[in-house]
Amino acid sequence: METNTQTKSGPQAGTFERSGDLLLQAKGITKRFGEILANNDVSIDLRAGEIHALLGENGAGKSTLVKILYGALEPNDGTLLWRGKPVSITSPAEARKLGIGMVFQHFSLFEALTVAENIALAIPGKLSIRALSERIRTVSTDYGLELDPGAIVADLPVGIRQRVEIVRCLLQEPDLIIMDEPTSVLTPQETDQLFITLQRLTSEGCAILYISHRLEEVKQICHHATIMRHGEVVSECDPSQETPATLASMMVGAEIKDVRKTGAGEPGDERLVIGSLSAPADGPFGVALRDVNLAVRAGEVVAIAGIAANGQGELFDLISGERLADRADSVLIDGQAVGRKGVNDRRRTGAAFVPEERLGHGAVPGLKLSENIVLTRHGVNDGLVNAGFVNRSRAEELEKKIKKNYDVRMSHDDPEARSLSGGNLQKFVVGRELDRNPGVIVINQPTWGVDAGAAATIRQELIDLARAGSAVLVISQDLDEIFEVADRIAVISRGELSEAVSAEIMTRERIGLLMGGITDAHSAQGEGAAFDAA
Amino acid sequence: MRLELEKRSEHSTFYSIASPFIAIGLTLVFGAILFAVIGEDPAEALYIYFVSPLTSTWSLHELAVKSAPLILIGAGLSLCFLSSNWNIGAEGQFVMGAVVGSMMPIVFPDVQNSLVLPLMIIMGMAGGAAYAFIPAFLKTRFGTNEILTSLMLVYVAQLFLDWLVRGPWRNPEGFNFPESRAFHEYAILPEVLESGRAHYGAVFAILAVLGLAILLSKTLKGFEIQVTGQAPRAGRFGGFSTAKMTFFAFLLSGALAGLAGVSEVSGAVQQLRPVVSPGYGFTAIIVAFLGRLNPIGVLFAGILLGISYLGGEEAQIVLGLSDKITRVFQGMLLFFVLACDTLILYRIRLVSKRAPSLAMGEN
């Protein structure tokens, strides 16, 4: 078994110098879910003082491995060694006792409690809230992650919530921190701050296992990378010696096609216009939209950048018609005022919509793909419904066509939506709308959790659609994606949308400022003036 | 060794069909054990309970009388449950259908012509639907839990009927017995065949089953019911309104329960009494789930539960068992049906405990 693990690590294995002490070693980890081998003979060494990237497409087995290292899953086979001694980590509590901490991608905080109360829940032993608050203040200032222990979590922006998670982890003085996609909710500035903290931690001898889809980032800060594909470790490398493109091709196992953004001619007529759209918050944790203005013209892709939960979902619902606006003329599609019309009326004008959530919003998990085509297309004249009766053979015909044209891979024909992997389902959900050749398409997080190959395909489709004369509006949190597809970029922050600026003059720094900081009217005006000048 | 439930990636077609049969099998096994424990011969008891009701013309007619309301209500409820609206108050809607449908022969006994019966049926359906409107309105307007409101309204309906037949609607010539006047001939739902008591309620049940089966499997409305029930957010994205669906589901299942109610009083009982239902509205919940929320399945499940009523009576007469035995059987059946449904989306695996990793260290 041991010789095997060494050869598995690929051609580059053993060619780089790694200095830190061995902290956690996993050897020959195998985990089976039914017929699926989620981890097949996976081995990984984590060393003190090293930021170790774990890369792989969705479904490559990263989460399974991490859950095993953190004690949340039991492997079927394999050994874990902590500082050279065999250990059995059967629960997260045991992992924490050893000195392994984890910062989750999805926050596990109680919104109604304060920062200190949330942290107290996770810290073993009795410590008064006041003493704990003092420690939180010391530790957070020490690491440049300032926190107010008395703040209610619900009031905090996402970036700060993540600090809470990190500080909670740091208070346990771990030797190894596992971070799952930590920067996906951060502005560029917040990301830089996080990197400083990570470097400080490694200089103190802490090991970090870093999971991210952002290859630029991995190249910038990670010392070592393990790349997984189909449940196996396919190679290891020093990311600083690689480019994002070579990293991506190692993940996918093939060259990724570059997205070509060519042929942007003179934009045509305004096909989607949002005029002075305001809406109150929808529920206690919703975001109110304030005076949103945007026009998307034929032939162009406009992208809205922003950190999660700044009103993107609300804006999407109001444009799609799942929620009605107060005034009919606050949403115009091809000149028709549709603000008070429902989603199917808007689809009939030639518009198409793809929401962020695939399962449960864009598609019904328990229904077949062909039935999921009926879901969004029964209202437009596609021959799917005759006199109230559903034409199933027509739906199956469309399903086959979309499967073929958009390369949706499935184990058997016309399966339930829930059985598709995230990337394949996204290709289906996007293909379902593109197949209509829509005049206007609004798409929220087009490649969220989608592997690099599929993402490139979807982005190219969107650009091609625009070049053929449609108006494309992309809402995304991924700046790389935005710069790849957009002709113009606007930024949404706390329900306010900045002016859309040409992608050629927009910079990441400017987006970062718009995303995060500018809340008071004064600086917003100053910033606006700067844009006018530009 | 331990049992582990493992999620399937899709619904299992095999278990979708097999699970009710497994449930029935388990109910029989545990029923046999139950009979053995109370000192009866299990084989004989099961025969009396489940087979003897099918052995005579008379009892087959009785079976139709008992199964028809179960199927009518169960078919409506399966649609309602599919749309994730939990109408537990069909019993109340049944009673209200019976009450409103009986207005013609009781309040206007002198109106006697062939329009009376159709009018009674329409009024019965309207009564059940109107009563089901209340929980639907409370749910959509105030977010009230419809399970509680619809259930509590059952008791209101039952007491209202009780008050009516002891008070204003008591038969003036009835020697103060708590019952209404007997329905006149124009107000009686006729029998289907010469040979026995089975009335047109059974025909209504079959028509309802066919109608709902087509609605659910073929039409856009049926698609809408499935989508809003399984994923309301996706339903909204498809342009379907959850609130409208709540009203549709409650009104339709209420109308069918009301139809069952008026058919029962006009066909089987032929007057109003303080109690007009042996719990049809509640038993129909079992029928709906045993039939896998599919109208055709409900048809068979309704017949099975009809047998359980007759078998319970038979067991009282022949074996001298308490009539509670019927409830015990129905309860076991529901329990096993819900348990077996787990198999549709999960598979069970025996897992042997993993050897501790210490033992497998360096070698």
Structure description:
- The complex is a heterodimer of chains A (534) and B (363).
- Chain A is of the alpha/beta class.
- Chain A has a domain at 270-350 and 438-533: P-loop containing nucleotide triphosphate hydrolases (Rossmann fold, 3-Layer(aba) Sandwich), CATH 3.40.50.
- Helix content of chain A is 35%, strand content 23%.
- Chain A contains 18 helices and 23 strands.
- In chain A, the strands form five sheets. In chain A, strands 13, 16, 19, 20, 21, 22 and 23 form a seven-stranded mixed β-sheet that branches. In chain A, strands 6-7-8-3-9-10 form a six-stranded mixed β-sheet.
- In chain A, helix 12 (369-377) packs across helix 13 (392-405).
- Mean pLDDT of chain A is 85; it is low at 1-15 and 519-534.
- Chain B is mainly alpha-helical.
- Chain B has a single domain (2-348), classed as Orthogonal Bundle (ABC transporter involved in vitamin B12 uptake, BtuC).
- Chain B has helices at residues 13-37, 42-51, 57-82, 90-101, 103-107, 116-142, 146-166, 201-218, 220-230, 232-237, 242-269, 280-290, 295-319, 324-345, and strands spanning 2-7, 346-351.
- A two-stranded antiparallel ribbon of chain B has the order 1-2.
- The two termini of chain B are 26 Å apart.
- The A-B interface holds A 33-34, 74-76, 78-80, 86-88, 320-322, 342-344, 347, 353, 355, 357, 360-367, 371, 374-376, 378-379, 385, 388-390, 415-416, 418-419 and B 6, 9-11, 218-223, 226-227, 230-231, 233-234, 236-239, 347, 354, 356-358, 360-362.
